[in-house]
Amino acid sequence: MDKLQAIKVFIEVAKQQSFSLAADVLGMSAPTATRAIAELEGRLQVKLLNRTTRLVRLTESGTRFFNDMQRIIEDLEEAEASAAGVYSTPSGTLTVTAPILFGQKHVMPIINEYLSVYSQVSVKAMFYDKVTSLLEEELDVAIRIGHLKDSNLYATQVGTVRRIVCGSPRYFKRRGVPKYPEALLEHDLIFPATFESTTTWQFQNGAKKELLKLSPRLICNQNVVALQAAIEGRGITRLMSYQVGEELEKGTLQAVLTGYEEESLPVNVVSVEGRRANAKVRSFIDLAAQRLRENPFINTQE
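Request: output the structure for the sequence above.
Response:
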């Protein structure tokens, strides 16, 4: 087996964490894939993979080699695709995922614009309040809020958002405005269960972080329900700035404890293919990045 093909086998085994699965993807037998890796390790005089009866994992040297070779293969495939004109016209089905409320408020307008521009593309919009695997769920593009844990994703940061404690002016007129975090213990609190995984809220005052265990009067399994309950004066909630930005502008909600907010979280548009993504993915990422960077609710301003 030639050197380039052996490297492609190595990359696929590393991705699949399995010789047999990689062999299926590449259309070869598992023993052929195993021999290719053995020849590659012999040529390099270094162990690239640790094998057990159940799992295959990269060694430290293997991780470095994987990252370097993946970039080279991507550049090669991109050059071939560009020469052939394969990736020049957006077409096919594009699958996009985002958090539910973010998707409804800020991604759907982008998808509608994209569909108007690219007539040969159809879109599947899959909105979840959970982090899904792009590879396992066969997703093309995701909008992710928070620090990325998957180093294999290609990310384009488009802004930042922050957690905002807020309630309606009507509620604050009746119950008073909390001036410091501990004052929340005397208020009715609304917890969105999909956003707050614990009843402990963290606040930050300069370099000092403070944890405060709270007792909610209302727990909602959807952020939009918690938002509506806060607007109606049921109590105080904490949601992302993009979720309450319009309500703060209109005055139906009022932010409090702004001096105790945690640091902002990044908003990224991510994909698994990076520069070698086909035209439908690249064109959507370009449009989404532009529109989200223009979005006044995707920022850190109070």
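The two ends are 60 Å apart (CA to CA).
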